Amino acid sequence: SAVISQKPSRDICQRGTSLTIQCQVDSQVTMMFWYRQQPGQSLTLIATANQGSEATYESGFVIDKFPISRPNLTFSTLTVSNMSPEDSSIYLCSVALTGRDQPQHFGDGTRLSIL
Amino acid sequence: QKEVEQNSGPLSVPEGAIASLNCTYSDRGSQSFFWYRQYSGKSPELIMSIYSNGDKEDGRFTAQLNKASQYVSLLIRDSQPSDSATYLCAVLERRDDKIIFGKGTRLHILP
To answer: Which of A52, A57, B65, B102 has its CA 20 to 30 A from that of A76?
Structure first.
């Protein structure tokens, strides 16, 4: 499986600011995803990061709040914009190596706290 | 309604016993099923994938799939304290071609 590096691992931010989270994979992958996991909860898919085109967002998530880039097959970023305390969560990058029907592998996550 | 259901637990199992974790899903057309283990404060780690009816064994872990009854289970033999974690069931729903995660079952192995 791929090695997935996610940065930063944690951050504490002020309300109203924005943070960009990076996800780097050591090999080319077909699919990259961004999830949110709130304390004690399961994983909620934010969007699928598409290489060279706009991300595909899930219901309840919008591009203005969570802009995503994927310039190539090994790298993606998620920005959490205009943060509020409700955005405090763990954000996870995942990849599927060859297709959507394959298992996903997760980065270590970014633990985000908003003051 | 897309759903992957798991008992939240905690499920307490004595060390050395068999832990049995269950998951049901709603999309009858689902074809791919996954079990993840998540330690507290860590990201999910893939344990097993299963695609066909029946059992699939990997070391102490056995995944069981019954598509007719729409359930998938994970058995952990000779449970160890290090198996204490939350286990997430994930199903690739054919309707939307997305992986849906259950809320997870917390497993506690008693020394």
So the answer is: B102
